[in-house]
Amino acid sequence: MDLTNEQLLDMYVTMNKIRTFENRVAELFADGKIPGFVHLYVGEEAVATGVCASLTDQDYITSTHRGHGHLIAKGGDIKLMMAELFGKKTGYCKGKGGSMHIADLNLGIMGANGIVGGGPPLASGAALACQYLGNDGVAVCFFGDGASNQGTTHEAMNLATCWKLPVVFVNENNMYGISSCTLNSMCVPNIADRAAAYDMPGVVVDGNDVIAVCEAAAEGISRARQGKGPSLIECKTYRHRGHFEGDPCAYREDSELEEWKEKDPIPRLEQKLMEIELLTDAKINEIKSGLQKDMADAEQFAEESPFPDVSELTEDVYT
Amino acid sequence: MPNMNFAQALNDAHKVEMERDANIYVAGEDVGVYGGIFGVTAGLLDQFGDKRVKDTPITESAIVGTAVGAATAGLRPVIELMFVDFIGVALDQLYNQAAKMKYMFGGKAKIPMVLRMTCGAGIGAAAQHSQCLEAMFMHLPGLKVVMPSTPNDAKGLLIEAIRDDNPVVFLEHKMLYALEGEVAEGDFTIPFGQADIKREGQDVTIVATANMVHTALSAAEKLAADGISAEVVDPRTLYPLDEEGIIQSVKKTHRLVIVHEEVKFAGSGAEIAAIVAEKAFDYLDAPILRVAAPFCPVPFSQPLEQAFIPSEEEIIDAVKKVME
Ligand SMILES: Cc1ncc(C[n+]2csc(CCOP(=O)(O)OP(=O)(O)O)c2C)c(N)n1
Ligand SMILES: [Mg+2]
Questions:
Q1: pLDDT higher than threshold 80 for residue B292
Q2: CATH class of B196-323
Q3: How close A173 gets to chain B, by Cα (Å)?
């Protein structure tokens, strides 16, 4: 697959945007500005970025509790995201959802999800609608290694092949579901190995190599678009931060984290793009300071926005 | 009596029982190495080993279902589902299997298992991590439903739950885990179906559960300053429900306010109100009032979440209304 210079640069910017957003959210959470549970995507940026590069606004994604990266990669507005994290009226969900429930249906983002394994059936459902309506759309389901063990995930994949649905299951295997390591939670080496049981293609990719992710996803997505049915892509990656902010991480070794930091997807792409002279130090600075400014704007917007009025409490329950 | 917090009291109950009965095993997500997301199972893996303390994959249906199977075949599982909200994933194993098996089999099966779950709002965990669902469990014949409000009750009721030969749903409000109190040492139980009078009073009965017991107690304190003597009754178990205990209190005070954090509509308070109306109507001097959450999911935003949770002021208002 030949990626254009523009596509490569876009992916570089998107990954940095996610990283900048997440790092700032970590600080804001520590400062008590953001309540509730916050699960950050630092270290896994290549997955959402590489996959969403082949999606349009007409395509759907289902996300997870660790959803900020998916949202940004699918085109989500960081101002509205930040305001939602603050619980403000101007946020994506009017402050009702918070980090685990951000959605933007105009962009095909069917929501982050607080239920592990909640997304796969929804993705198959969105794919069913695309197939049914004949609109060329596809659905991508992001789900974790932990979620891969839920019955809902197996059921959704089986039904997807039975019905030849245009859906791509993108597994983000970061080796842990909170403290539970994949070495103890599954007995096959790869989640993609399970694809055989549903009779769909299953591939393993280096989830910290955005180009590899992009290529594998492009193939699965085009297959789905052509009516050839679902596929499963397993992206091996790692989360740099705790499961949620505040997690002491006693269940994993620091050395493991250090090894994975060596494989950080952002410097990897950066280096490649510098080698082919698509990026220079000056350009990198320009990109990063631009993102810092966008982030400061988002934060200011969130900060200055009002909280929802208490009268809104029982609104939006029914249509 | 030693002082401990609610989470430590639950932890202590596990230890007391696991030392006594080798057929008890604990299973759930992050209950071993992590010691439970709220610390309730801390240290159990080290003390009892991984045969008895099992970290599971994320697989609620199988956690609950294997417990039902193992209980039927002679073990006494004490399982944790982290958040009560996740019961949706595993509900069949609880309500079609665990709750009905004994009856369907003509009384032959025995299913001694405890399903522990964290419930409640208050930490900004939003709609899928903050619910109170006790009424849903109360509605399923075959289950017992426990909802403690203090560390001592938590310990005594958990030991009782583990010794019970029926499936017990044990609901722990997340805002209570850090609550400190005196806890009886060693082996002791609190029988199911015995309400506890958390504060004696003459003028009005406030029936409250879990975290709301404490909100009701502080409301009662303020009411006392206004010359109103409120009795706070904590049912502690919602099934079996201490109908007699509640009715006795109503017979004394002639007024009833029911407080819970679940949504008001079809909540546990509806059942309590109906029982009192059926059995003690003549003793009532005022309509029964309920103070409970509005009919909506739990919102994330802090001002909305605070408005969702029944407050001391709402309890005081309701009491004043029934006192008019
Ligand atoms: C049904 C359900 N069970 C358990 C949880 C608690 N929980 C939240 S995230 C998580 C781990 C998920 O692991 P994985 O799918 O690998 O995603 P990751 O956090 O690694 O991105 C767990 C157990 C939940 N939210 N929903
Ligand atoms: Mg994981």
A1: yes
A2: alpha beta
A3: 14
- What is the ipTM for the molecules in this complex? 0.95
* pLDDT tens figures, B218-268: 999 999 999 999 999 999 999 999 999 999 999 999 999 999 999 999 999
Fill in the amino acid letter for B154. Answer: A
Say how far apart CA A122 and CA A33 lie, in whole Å.
Answer: 32
Widest pairwise Cα distance in chain B: 60
Q: What distance in Å separates the CA atoms of residue A68 and residue A64, rounded to the nearest whole number?
A: 9
ω before B235 within 30° of 0 (cis)? no
What is this structure's pTM? 0.97
Which contacts qualify for A247-251: CB closer than 8 Å, 24 or more apart? A247/A178, A250/A179, A250/B33, A250/B34, A251/A176, A251/A179, A251/A181, A251/B33, A251/B34
Topology given in CATH for the domain delimited by A5-305 = Rossmann fold (3.40.50)
Q: Do domains B3-182 and B196-323 have the same CATH topology?
A: yes
Residues, Cβ < 5 Å to ion ligand 2: A 144-146, 174, 176-177
Assigned CATH topology for domain B3-182: Rossmann fold (3.40.50)
- pLDDT tens per residue, range B125-175: 999 999 999 999 999 999 999 999 999 999 999 999 999 999 999 999 999
Q: Which chain B residues touch A113 with a CB distance below 8 Å?
A: 128
- What are the residue numbers of the active site of B? 129
Helix (H) or strand (E) holding B320: helix B312-323
Which residues, 6+ apart, have CB-to-CB distance to A308 below 8 Å?
A: A87, A88, A89, A94, A95, A96, B299, B301, B303, B304
Which residue puts its alpha carbon closest to atom 7 of ligand 1? Answer: A116
Mutate to test the pocket of ligand 1, among A37, A40, A47, A116 (most ligand atoms within 8 A of CB): A116
**Strand B168-173 versus strand A231-236 pairing type:** unpaired
Ranges of chain A whose pLDDT falls below 50: none
